[in-house]
Fold DUF402 domain-containing protein.
Amino acid sequence: MIVRFEEYDHTTLETVRCEPRGADQRGAWFSIDEASVLFVPWNADWCVRFYEGDADGLEAFAQVVKPVHISSEVVELIVLDLGVEVTEGVVRLTGEEDFEWNQLAQDYPEELVVRARRAANEALERVMMATYPFDRTAAEIVADVCNERDTRSE
């Protein structure tokens, strides 16, 4: 399966080959490699990658996206610059300057701007409150998803 991340103008930013690892009422899980996984929620405008043992200490990166197409073969997402990064336990918002620039340069519709800001706030709140899928360590999540154990929190 392929996950394609694109700019608002449909320029491809990144294409990731991954393996579907399960889905439930909250979203779908994919393993990217043995040390990272991707979660795509069904009803949210963000997705998150969890990393086990990243050299720079990156544990999770939730990025604001606009889902475009989801099928059994490909997931296409438009990246809207805003994100939430967790590095060595420190949480920070990212991409605010790029978002402001691209909002003007690519003429984001006002509805998209509102949705993107709401999505960034939702992802940040979930990280800070340790709610699903941020309710376990990145290492636990990667191990569970890559070993196809239950990805739902008890």
User: Anything to note?
Assistant: The first helix runs from residue 96 to 105. The radius of gyration is 15 Å. The mean pLDDT is 91. DSSP finds three helices and nine strands in the chain.
